[in-house]
Amino acid sequence: MNKILLIIFTGLIFSSCATVLNKGVQKISITSSEEIDVVSIDSSLKSFNQHSTFYLERSKKPVTIELQLDTVRKKLFLKSHNSIAYWANIFFNYGIGMLVDKDNPKRFDYPRRIYIQKLDSNIVASRFSLTTKGAINWHIALPHVNFFYVATQKEHRSSEGFWGLESGLDYFYMDGRFISVYGGVATDFFVPVPAAVDIRGEYQSSTGIFVNVRNNHRTGSFDFGYGLAYSRLSRRKTNNIDSTFIPEIKRNSTVGLSLNSSYRFGELFQLGLLYQPYFIRFDNKVAADYQHQISIELIWKIPLRR
User: Which residue among 71, 152, 223, 263 is least crowded, i.e. fewest CB within 10 A of its CB?
Assistant: First the structure.
């Protein structure tokens, strides 16, 4: 009986994600606009690099940041929240580990990066500084997971797969808003072998070559954009068994919308979702016809001008 209780207790201890994965001390990075100086942070164990990096003990209590704005001293309170490791208990052990983490300060997490700035008469903290008018970014993206709905000769075909490349420029015409012009290609190639091969050896694939122009809003950690898109969609049908089979290729040009949202993980990297619904098709004639491309994108924003 004692052995059984020991096994159960050991399992609970090692199933508490926050207790096992989180350290008692957390590193955070704080930067500020030019008119604000970070004077001190309570509970900070160590700081370096001109007071931009701090080590804080994890706690439920908010941390007080003391700031100097001109000749005035101000205070900003940094609240903690439950860490990802704490919520991971739901996935890994059906929430049992939350009972172990419940009273442990390791369950808490402070924002890992903070930018402090003055907006009107208030001092606010956010993850990133506001991108200002005149900034230019070089956009590079991999439409890594792609979903197509493409017109064929007599019907429409849905498919999904991987790989693509997209590039273009962002121009911030005002603070937090930018115009983007991108071009790219996306495919439904499946790794490691084609997924749509049937028993007759037939294999179908879709490709989209596209250009889009969008107006975008940057809000905190998110970018949202909307605009127009032009695409050259193609469907190719081949046969891996029949050597006499002549490949069939169906192409059409199409016009529609371009809708995008992305989440910023850092200064450069973002994870995005691109949805481009097309409504007008150009092939032998102009016709109203719905097709689409949906892509999950890995995005890099490289500053060319700040």
Answer: 71
Which of 71, 104, 126 is the last residue in one of the domains? 126
CA distance linking residue 255 with residue 210, whole number of Å: 10
Q: Model's pTM, two decimal places?
A: 0.77
Indicate the SS3 state at residue 21.
Answer: helix
Tens of pLDDT, residues 56-69: 889 899 988 888 88
131 within domain boundaries? no
- pLDDT tens string 237-274: 766 666 666 677 788 999 999 999 999 988 899 999 99
Closest CA to 164 of 137, 191, 203: 191
Structural domain of 301: 136-305
Tokens of 259: 């809708």
By the 8 A CB rule, do 109 and 24 touch? no
Q: 107 by DSSP, 3-state: which?
A: helix
Query: Encoding tokens for residue 140?
Result: 């590079």
What span, in angstroms and rounded, lies between the C-alpha atoms of 289 and 17? 50
Q: Which of 76, 92, 126 is the last residue of a domain?
A: 126
- The alpha carbon of 289 is separated from its chain's Cα centroid by a whole number of angstroms, namely 31
The answer to whether position 262 is within a domain reads yes
CA-to-CA distance for 190 and 92, rounded, in angstroms?
30
